[in-house]
């Protein structure tokens, strides 16, 4: 009976490891997270599920017979092994600033940035990269942070960036510098610090709306007043995205005057990271179904269609995900078709990169009679 119990425990541990590896693989190739079709936050769900699996695995492992547990010459408990999915293959150390590159793989920022100065291939898949941009993987960063806290693992900060969480007054001061700057340089630096704070510290982004009434308006003020400084726009839009991954903030963000129109504009201008994070913010805002009414007009679909067509692979995929979630309801499919999203999707499918994901969006649109006609008339249809 004892042997049977041991085998069962080992089997459960193996099953949990397989499930955890699958989830972490999805997180590693995601870079930002998606919103589920039922309107819940995919980012938070993935984090909670990963932590649940890790904790469950620890419980199962603790039930193994002592003979199965490696002995230690020290009286102290052995250190918990860091999951290999949390380590960068370039440094073989736990990632402290994970970023995702064009291949969809994630690495430590410092090492991959240096690597890409000399190489144009992914160090893991060896595929030629379409661009050398690195996108912060907020989801994996959050999972690693929670795992470290749960397991008492000391996760270092980047050597060149020791960031301290600011108080509420400190955040208010940054917002004041953004909305009423003394100079362009000061405004850019303040926006960069807000971006960093909302990325690094869950407490800052979780309570941003509750503790800073009017904070979203102050944050976007430079853009609403017509600023076209690329670095400033990128920092503001990325900070807005960081805040939007918290479900409690979604409604307030969407209802703030000019937010949706500014996100729509940022889909077509600024850096590619600005455009990608604009699409990711819209995706987060769609966690509340009622937001579709203010997001899903033809101008939004036009911008999304253009971004699908000319964006890098990851950015195009995010834009396609926004179209997919909007068009879950048939009333938005007419606007998407009129914006010629079908043609953009056909081109991406023909290019074969993420073809299955783009095909799932196209299938929704071809349930509409005009969608079928557009597809047949497309030069890409064969």
Walkthrough of the structure:
- The chain is an all-alpha fold.
- It is 60% helix and 2% strand.
- The chain is built from 20 helices and three strands.
- A three-stranded antiparallel sheet has the order 2-1-3, sandwiched between helices.
- A hairpin with a 5-residue loop joins β1 and β2 (106-108).
- α1 (2-28) packs antiparallel against α2 (42-62), α10 runs parallel beside α13 and α13 packs parallel to α16 (313-326).
- The N and C termini lie far apart (62 Å).
- Mean pLDDT is 81; it is low at 31-35 and 66-77.
String of helices and strands = HHEEHEHHHHHHHHHHHHHHHHH
Query: For the residues shown, what is the average pLDDT?
Result: 81
Which strand order do you get reading across the main beta sheet?
2-1-3
Q: How helix-rich are the residues, as a percent range?
A: 55-70%
Helix/sheet category: mainly alpha
| Strand count | 3
Number of helices: 20
Given the C-alpha coordinates, what overall shape results? globular
Main sheet makeup: 3 strands, antiparallel
Question: Rg, please?
Answer: 23 Å
What is the distance, rounded to the nearest whole angstrom, between the alpha carbons of the first and last residues? Answer: 62 Å
Which regions have little confidence, pLDDT < 50, spanning 5+ residues? Answer: 31-35, 66-77
Q: What proportion strand? A: under 5%
């Amino acid at each position: 009976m004892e042997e049977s119990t041991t085998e069962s425990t080992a089997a459960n541990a193996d099953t949990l490891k397989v499930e955890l590896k699958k989830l972490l693989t999805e997180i590693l190739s995601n870079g930002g997270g998606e919103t589920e079709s039922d309107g819940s936050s995919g980012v938070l769900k993935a984090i909670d599920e990963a932590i649940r699996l890790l904790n469950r695995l620890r419980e199962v492992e603790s039930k193994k017979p002592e003979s199965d547990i490696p002995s230690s010459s020290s009286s102290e408990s052995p250190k918990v092994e860091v999951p290999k999915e949390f380590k960068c293959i370039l440094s073989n150390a736990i990632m402290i600033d994970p970023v995702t590159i064009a291949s969809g793989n994630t690495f430590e920022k410092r090492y991959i940035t240096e690597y890409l100065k000399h190489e144009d291939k992914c160090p893991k898949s060896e595929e030629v990269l379409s661009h050398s941009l690195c996108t912060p993987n907020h989801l994996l960063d959050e999972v690693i942070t929670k795992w470290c806290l749960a397991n008492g693992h000391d996760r270092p900060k980047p050597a060149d960036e020791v960031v301290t969480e600011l108080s509420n007054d400190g955040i208010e001061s940054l917002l004041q510098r953004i909305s009423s700057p003394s100079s362009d340089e000061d405004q850019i630096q303040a926006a960069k610090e807000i971006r960093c704070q909302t990325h690094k510290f869950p407490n800052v982004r979780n309570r941003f709306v509750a503790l800073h009434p009017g904070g979203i308006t102050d944050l976007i003020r430079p853009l609403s007043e017509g600023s076209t400084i690329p670095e400033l726009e990128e920092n503001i839009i990325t900070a807005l995205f960081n805040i939007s991954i918290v479900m409690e903030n979604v409604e307030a963000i969407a209802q703030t005057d000019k937010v949706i129109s500014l996100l729509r504009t940022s889909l077509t201008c600024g850096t590619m990271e600005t455009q990608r994070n604009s699409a990711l913010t819209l995706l987060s805002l769609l966690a509340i179904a009622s937001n579709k009414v203010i997001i899903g007009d033809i101008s939004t679909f036009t911008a999304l269609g253009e971004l699908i067509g000319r964006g890098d692979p990851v950015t195009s995929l995010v834009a396609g995900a926004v179209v997919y979630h909007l068009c879950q309801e048939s009333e938005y499919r007419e606007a998407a078709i009129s914006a010629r999203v079908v043609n953009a999707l056909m081109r991406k499918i023909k290019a074969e990169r993420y073809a299955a994901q783009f095909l799932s969006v196209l299938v929704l649109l071809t349930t509409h009679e005009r969608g079928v006609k557009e597809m047949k008339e497309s030069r890409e249809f064969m």
